[in-house]
Amino acid sequence: MLNRGLTSFGYNFLSFNSNPTKNSEEKENNYQVIKMDLTYYGYLPNVLYIKKGVPVKWIINVKQMSGCTNAIMIESLNIKRDLKYGENIIEFTPPIDAKEIKFSCWMRMVWGKFVINDERANSLNAKGK
Q1: How many domains does the chain have?
Q2: What is the domain-level CATH number for residue 95?
């Protein structure tokens, strides 16, 4: 809980759900398609890699959710969405000057982030496969 609170202020000491090998990225009509699951354990994976300047189609597959995780938000992009079971799609374009974009549940207790870089996101998302 302490770590999750500190991530709200830009500190990240422990990352329990971080597993970049589960993230998949595809190309679809000039979008980066990024997939993530939501379960009672949180966002899987909770660290996602995207390429700078390329629009993102973020597919959140809700398998399990709670009252805390029934909505997701990206405060820096002014995005907040209620989630439903099954696939939820959020589209956005990463700001040119951003190095990462944090997202969380509406209570800011369950969190994750997009890491933005110039490399192909697919090679980073497929690490360990």
Answers
A1: 1
A2: 2.60.40.420
